[in-house]
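Lecture notes, continued. The same structure-token format from the folding unit now serves as the input rather than the output. Read the line below as a description of shape only.
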């Protein structure tokens, strides 16, 4: 019997969460501080404490977070920033909008940036390395940190997909000179719209970020640097404060689903692997198959919604094809094989079994013991 299994389910189906969110929004309506209200301060403080950082500055989106982090760090025209070839295009766009030039490193088989490729691309104009913790797995950030120290570069984490992920006991966002997060509706810590955060331990960078998120002004009047209106809304902060407490349970459910998939599907497709010391949050659960397109069609015909995330390497995007430095051989190979299957916390065990059954069915129908 065909089921319908959505890739994500953004409905609020828990009555307790629904009531708590209504109460939080009502409190904002009552106090009336819609712009930069007290919930923003509280959310920033709790976010910084969770990540073990001195400062957290709330901004309007994850894209704002990366752009403002770059601007606060003084990165601009004439500079190069090395980043991954595989991410949502917002990562590259933030570098370009700062006035700097993105340089695209290749990825390793875990889909995260390859430190060896990064080092080959470091040049005299390189100012920073901006790795992405892709799919909710922290990249090999100790190796990236070592490169930054060796070459005198800034480390800016794009942790948009990785709130709550851990490596050797440290959470995403704890490693960089600056760290950037997204809390849009698709994330594990999800707002009801867009929201972002920038972390730092530097008082100077924090002060710059506070000015930059409000058109580069001090005390709302004196403009010290042209910037955008990138503040975090009070309503989103209120919503995110409610949802922070639910994140541990969400992560554990996603990890439970991921472990179940991995047991069922290993040997049929390539599945994600956690190395010792890693705690992935599975923002997405990405399988890989040489028969990806046929498998995708089979799952969709069976009512399973799947995604290819992301189908174009960033240096292959029209905006970046000309004149960029890039290594992306492995990224292009992986992009032809990757497929995200539903792994969100609202799935039932029956949903998860159904998805795995359909993948096994595909392998059997194709007459292959190994669809990789």
């Amino acid at each position: 019997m065909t089921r319908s299994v959505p890739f994500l389910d953004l409905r609020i189906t828990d009555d307790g969460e629904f009531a708590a969110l209504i109460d939080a929004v009502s409190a904002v309506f009552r106090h009336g501080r819609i712009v930069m209200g007290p919930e923003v301060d509280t959310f920033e403080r709790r976010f910084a404490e969770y990540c073990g950082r001195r400062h957290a500055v709330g901004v309007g989106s994850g894209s704002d977070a990366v752009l403002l982090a770059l601007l606060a760090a003084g990165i601009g025209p004439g500079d190069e920033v090395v980043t991954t070839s595989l991410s949502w295009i917002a990562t590259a766009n933030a570098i370009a909008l700062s006035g700097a030039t993105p340089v695209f490193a290749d990825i390793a088989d875990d889909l995260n940036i390859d430190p060896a490729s990064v080092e080959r691309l470091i040049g005299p104009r390189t100012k920073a390395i901006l790795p992405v913790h892709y799919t909710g797995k922290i990249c090999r950030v100790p190796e990236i940190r070592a490169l930054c120290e060796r070459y005198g570069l800034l480390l800016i984490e794009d942790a948009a997909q990785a709130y709550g992920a851990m490596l050797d006991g440290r959470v995403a966002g704890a490693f960089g000179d600056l760290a950037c997060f997204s809390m849009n509706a698709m994330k594990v810590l999800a707002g009801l719209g867009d929201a972002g955060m920038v972390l730092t331990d530097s008082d100077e960078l924090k002060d710059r970020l506070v000015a930059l998120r409000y058109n580069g002004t001090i005390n709302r009047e004196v403009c010290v640097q042209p910037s955008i209106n990138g503040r975090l809304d009070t309503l989103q902060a209120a919503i995110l404060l409610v949802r922070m407490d639910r994140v541990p349970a969400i992560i554990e459910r996603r990890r439970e689903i991921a472990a179940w998939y991995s047991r069922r599907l290993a040997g049929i497709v390539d599945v994600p692997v956690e190395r010792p010391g890693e705690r992935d949050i599975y923002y997405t659960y990405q399988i890989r198959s040489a028969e990806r397109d046929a498998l995708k069609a089979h799952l969709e015909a069976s009512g399973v919604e799947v995604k290819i995330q992301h189908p174009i390497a960033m240096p292959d995007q029209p905006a970046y094809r000309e004149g960029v430095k890039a290594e992306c051989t492995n990224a292009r190979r992986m992009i032809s094989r990757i497929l995200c299957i539903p792994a969100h916390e609202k799935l039932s065990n029956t949903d998860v079994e159904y998805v795995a059954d359909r993948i096994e069915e595909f392998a059997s129908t194709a007459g292959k013991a190994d669809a990789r």
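Point for the exam: The two ends are 26 Å apart (CA to CA).
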